[in-house]
Amino acid sequence: MIDDTCYVSCASSEDGTAVRHRQTHVDGECVCRIVASHGCCPSLQAAADGGLIVRTNPADRATLRAMIEELRGVADAVRIRSLVVDDGETATRSELVSLQTLTEIERETVERAILEGYYDRPRTVSFDDLATDMGITSSALSKRLASAEAKIMRSLFEDRD
User: Fold this and answer.
1) What are the Cα distances from residue 8, in Å, to 36, 44, 47, 78, 107?
2) d(CA 37, CA 57)
3) Are 68 and 78 in contact, with CB atoms under 8 Å apart?
4) Exposed, middle or buried by CB within 10 Å (0-12, 13-18, 19+), for 113?
5) Span 84-120, pLDDT tens digits
6) Which helix (H) or strand (E) holds 129?
7) What are the structural domains of the chain?
8) Does 42 sit behind a cis peptide bond, omega within 30 degrees of 0 on the bond before it?
9) Which of 84, 86, 100, 118 has the most Cβ atoms closer than 10 angstroms to its Cβ?
10) SS3 81
């Protein structure tokens, strides 16, 4: 984004061999401007059926939460497709975590837990408060998170010897 012009380059074919370059004048807010306003570099991965896949690397969960909240103000839907986890202090490597195996309900539950601060240390929302905020019982939240967390952990370790 330079001034009010958005410049985009992305692969336009399934195999990624064709590259399309576009520029357009932007009135108001756009995804790239919002992502950049949070100190992140937006990378457009794909555009199809009126949706965008944008890759970026927020500095921390608080930045991720704020960015998603702002994006939800201008987009019909915002989803986290995958996360790369790297705490910067103790991690010796990063891992790409695919969220594609999660059901819609599991994905929404995990996204909400992340955005509400359930996985922050220290937690900024309690388990019971998260369940109440989501309008579900603690038992239902427990089942959803346990199922989602198990799938995520399996995906992290499935290709290891």
Assistant:
1) 14, 7, 11, 20, 29
2) 13
3) yes
4) buried
5) 766 555 555 556 666 778 898 998 898 889 888 888 8
6) helix 127-134
7) 1-78 (no CATH), 80-161 (1.10.10)
8) no
9) 118
10) coil
